[in-house]
Amino acid sequence: MSKPLSGRNILLVEDEMMLVMLIESMLDDLGSQSVSAAANVRQGLDLIDGQVFDAAMLDVNLNGETSFPVADALAARGIPFVFSSGYGIDGLTERFRDRPVLKKPFQYEELAGMFERLFA
Known about the structure:
This protein is of the alpha/beta class. Helix content is about 35%, strand content about 20%. It is built from four helices and seven strands.
């Protein structure tokens, strides 16, 4: 099985704890070295300031706030990321329409394929 995240450190910004646990498990199966989770924008920005990440996955809607400030910080550092949203690309503002989006709910194979393309 492909391990596109082999040895990589991943930032996960997601506010639903059950999804955090599920996605962390998937990312571990994909070979990630570590997964650091944040439940809101402030936590995400603090993690970016304190750690080095190879990639990130951002839930667009975090309990009423968008993850766009985290996306801006990642983009400024050249860190690839993927959004996840129940709205798909329609949940994104125009400036992020070129970024990959996983529409919730997604399957393991979709997540794996997304990260394979991110690092291709």
